Each structure stands twice: as structure tokens, then as C-alpha cells.
Amino acid sequence: MRPLLSALLICLCHAACAADWLTVASDAQRRVELDRASILPSDAGSKVAWGRIVLSDEQAKIYGYRSVRALNRYDCRSHSFMIVKRVYLSDDERTMREDRIDATSPSAVKTGTIDDRFFNEVCKPASATDLRKVAKQAVEQMARAELEDKPSLRRANIRLAKEEVAEKPASEAKGSLSAAPGASSPRNSAEEAPALPRRVTREEIPPPAPLVVPPRARDPAIIRRSTPSRTNSVNPALAAAIAAARSSTTPHSSHDLHWSYEGENGPANWDKLDPQFATCARGTRQSPIDIRDGIKVDQEAIQFDYKPSMFRIVDNGHTIQITYGQGSRLSVMGRSYDLVQMHFHHPAEERIDGKSFEMVAHLVHRDSEGRLAVLAVLFEVGASNPLIQTLWNNLPLEKNEEYAPRVSIQIADLLPEKRAYFSYMGSLTTPPCSEGVLWLVLKQPVQLSAEQLNVFSRFYPNNARPIQPASGRVIKESR
Ligand SMILES: [Zn+2]
């Protein structure tokens, strides 16, 4: 019997390694996340990774735990997975209960479910850099763990890791973390590239399935059960990765397209998530801004040519977005811009003389040369807004699932009575923060009810980029 190195590594690592949580789905009740730092090759063609569901305060009270983590084993070739272990954690990350799952057979990953998104993220081909990163973390972690508690156990693990590297273990590659009969994937050498699914892009990400909280999680009893790691396999892919790490001086690199409004992937770090997002930090004409000291002039009226249209609505993970039928446009400063889409931010991103607003609609327009003009309609709480109500009535139930209701709307109904506006040159307020965007911010806010505002804030409590420096930009204001 040999210790199952990857299981030990992943458990050790998970106890103390810096996790890299990627939000795969979220709603008002819970957040579903994958720890990318935990993804490790298991036996041939499969990988293991930790995922977790973090509950809202309200849900945590109901279920008696804050989060549940699951260690899953993914068979990247047969598009299936197994839960190996579940751990229920309290507010302060204390283990409340630990369940080892002895599943008898792997479950097929159904297209369009959260499991499918986890699968795609875990099973996408690992680059050499990724492998080195993972292995380097594992080696570093083991070295660190040696100095911490349970030193003898961890020293044993390090010794085993060294043995793994020293050996030629492909012939022993068998078994799985799940230790379930019939769960092993066909044997394979580490060099053979397993048939991996094509990585889906964000736009293609299918909608997640509704999350089912495991019934056992409702059990209020707090049971602490220690589960010794099963031990029966060596891991050629991991050994190769460790070897690669040892001969590598490649610095850690992380490219991440999964930007958000808070935490590590929040606005302050957008530029670091992808080279294409560099403008978010280096740009000098960024949006939003606090609009003040405008030059009061007679700005020409914006000509609106909005037609009633059917629409599509999607919760794209950053906002609720409406796609409108073709043929609607606005004209200003000698250019005609087609309406492309509309979306919302709560609170409003732009401020006027320091004043903030509850919400804003950004109507994104593009001209024939690809130049963008964004019309901002500010919202304050007051009377119910019929157009917003129609949109909210048709909110999709799942993220990234576009819904095309059989309802037509007139986007012009959203505009305030007075069309005086501020204009300035800025940027997209989301990555890649591209500049050269003409901003047209209507001065008169429109109203929506507190209830309507509350609906949006349940989806997005805060999806506003912080104010950017105006840096002496010219701002014009209609008199
Ligand atoms: Zn926007």
C-alpha cells in the first residue's frame, strides 16, 4: 500500500495553500466556486479539485453551516465525475462535519449544469506553466507544512513525494481518490494526451443547473469525524509536474478573465487579470467619473430614433443585459450610432457633482466605424417604472441563459422628459476598459420604485466600478 499522494497533497494544500476561488455561479442565496489552485492531475486522464458553495447569512442560519466544500474527481475523458468528500464549515472556517462519499459509479456530467462548468474549467488542457505552477505550489506547501503542526505526518508526505518523483510509476497508475469500484479511468501513460473537451468561452458558457443543497446538510447535528486518507496509488502526472517544477524558475503567472466587483478579481486588479485589460490601470481617460465643472454650452439635442422592439434579456454574471432589435439609433455630433444593448449598474457608476444615484441604465450604441457612444439614464427611487417592470417580469431564472420573451418594449419610454445632457470622452467601465467612448449622461434622472430597485440589488448588490480620475478632461453640459 502506498499513500495516495495526490489526495494527501490536495488535503494538505487545501488546509493552508492560498486558494484561488473562481465564482462559477451565484445568486442571492449562495455562491458556487471552484478553487483553481487545488486542481491537480489524479490518475491517467482524471483530475481532482475542490469546489464550494458559500451560503448567504440567511441560508447559513437555516442550514447551520456557512459553506460546504466538495473534493471531486473528474474523468476528463469520459465526461463524468465523482464526489470524494464533503466538508461542512462554520463561519470561521472550522470543520463541522466531514463526509467521505463512497459512490459506486461516476455520474455523467450533464451539459449546461454547474457541474459541466466545473468540469470544463478543471479538465481544460493544462499548459506546461500550469503544471509547473501546481507542482511548485505542492512542493512549497509540503515544505511549509513540515514546519507546522503534525510534523511527522507531513515529513512522511514529503518523503513520499520525493519517492514518487524518483520512481517510474506509470505501471502503478490505478485507483482513484474516490476509491469506488469501477470508477477508474482506463490506464494511460502520462505522455498520452487524454481527449479533453474544448474549452468553452464565457459567451458559450451554458447556464448552470439549480443547486441542490445536499439533504444531509440540513442535519443540525455537528459531528466531527476524522477520515484517514485512503492510500493506494501513485501519480505519474503529478510526479512529472513536480519534476518540472524543480527544474523550473518560471515565475508564477496567472491569467484570469473572470473579473468581478470585489475581492482579488475586483476593479483594483482588473489590469492584472489579463494583458488585454491593461488599459483599466494605464488608461488616462477612464470611466466612470464624478461629473463636475462642466462647460455650460448649447449642446445640440440628441436625436433619438428608437423603435418598439422585441428583446432578449440575460444575467451575464456582471449585470442584467438587454439586447434590443435592430433599427434603433441615436444621432449626435454628426454621427449616427445603432443601439446595441442596454444594461444596469447598482449603484449608478457616474456621479454628478459628487451626488450618487441608485441605479443607472447604460444604453450602448455603436456607429458604422465601431465607435461607441453610451447613453446613461440615471435612476432615483420614486414612482414605479413600467418599462423596468416589464424587464424584471422577464428576468431569466439562470445565469448566462438568454431569454427572449414574447413581449415588445419601447426603449424610448425609459428616457426622461428633459434631454439635457453631459458629454465627455471616457471608456468602457468594465474590462477591457477600452477608451474612446463618447459618454452622454442625461441630467434628469428617471424613477423606479424601491421594490424594483430591490429586485436588481438582489442580483447585483454592487456592480459599479469606482470613480476614476477625470484628469482635466473636457466635460460639456447642456445649459
Ligand atoms: Zn455600464
Mean pLDDT: 75
Q: Quick one: overall form?
A: elongated
Q: Give the number of helices.
A: 10
Biggest beta sheet summary:
13 strands, mixed
C-alpha end-to-end distance: 82 Å
Rg for CA atoms: 26 Å
Share in β-strands = 25-35%
Helix content: 10-25%
Number of domains: 2
What's the structural blueprint in terms of helices and strands?
Elements: H1 5-16, E1 21-26, E2 30-35, E3 40-41, E4 46-55, H2 57-63, E5 67-75, E6 80-89, E7 95-100, E8 107-108, H3 114-123, H4 128-147, H5 151-166, H6 236-246, H7 270-273, H8 279-282, E9 290-291, E10 295-297, E11 303-305, E12 309-315, E13 320-324, E14 329-332, E15 335-345, E16 351-352, E17 359-366, E18 372-381, H9 386-393, E19 408-409, E20 421-427, E21 435-442, E22 446-448, H10 450-459, E23 476-478
Parallel strand pairs: 9-16, 10-23, 18-21, 18-22
Antiparallel strand pairs: 1-2, 2-4, 3-4, 4-5, 5-6, 6-7, 6-8, 11-14, 12-13, 12-19, 13-15, 14-15, 15-17, 17-18, 20-21, 20-23
Helix pairs in contact: 1-4, 1-5, 4-5, 4-6, 5-6
The structure holds zinc ion (ZN).
Zinc ion binds at residues 343, 345, 362, 429.
